[in-house]
């Protein structure tokens, strides 16, 4: 594996070098993107979300694991601490700087927790865009570590896999059945691990470090073999090039007022930068 290109974001927003790295590899690392106050706010939100405030929480318990693999999406609409961490922080400025667009929408937030004892809760190779009802290029996932993440549990990325903007079949995170909205007209996910021609990128993270990747970039992660929690909070931003694609998908990615080819701007996917 090779390291992900990284930039210090503690005192400044990402510049052209970071944008070029994202465009080239499909992923970039921003060190110290968020401080302790922001991390504490997210932890407050986690407590609320897992106590019932979030309407969309999934918990996967893998055979042989003693811990749980939990994830939640679109919780910002019910959890005020998440809303503050997303809207009332530097989070939009970080995303806006990387996208290089005239305007930007919040698409959704995603909380992911692999407790200790989830060695079998691996995240399969997938592209985020395979799940989205969206046309176009210009969605990034800004994924911030909440715990130390060593190489043993680090995300893996297939460098450059976003460049053709080709959408493959979606993988099921639970891993036991096909994804509920699987599309047979899309190509099967390649055998990435056994292809010697692929460049795999990874890096260890500290709390507050942020990975940002293109929605077409293939990525995966192993289960948590450590005796500590492995959690992250991600925010997905969409550029003004993105349009709604009216296809079957999870309800969290849809809004009733959107129609084929329309902008995604609405209460659920608000405009946060530009006009």
Structure report:
The protein has 275 residues and is an alpha+beta fold. The protein has four helices and 16 strands. The chain has helices at 16-25, 36-53, 80-87, 91-99; strands spanning 2-3, 6-8, 27-31, 57-60, 69-73, 104-114, 123-126, 134-135, 139-145, 156-158, 200-202, 210-214, 219-221, 230-239, 243-244, 271-273. Strands 2, 3, 4, 5, 6, 9, 12, 14 and 16 form a nine-stranded mixed sheet that branches. A five-stranded mixed sheet has the order 1-11-10-13-7, with no helix packed on it. The protein has a two-stranded antiparallel sheet with strand order 8-15. Helix 2 (36-53) runs antiparallel to helix 3 (80-87). The protein is globular. The model has no long low-confidence stretch (mean pLDDT 92).
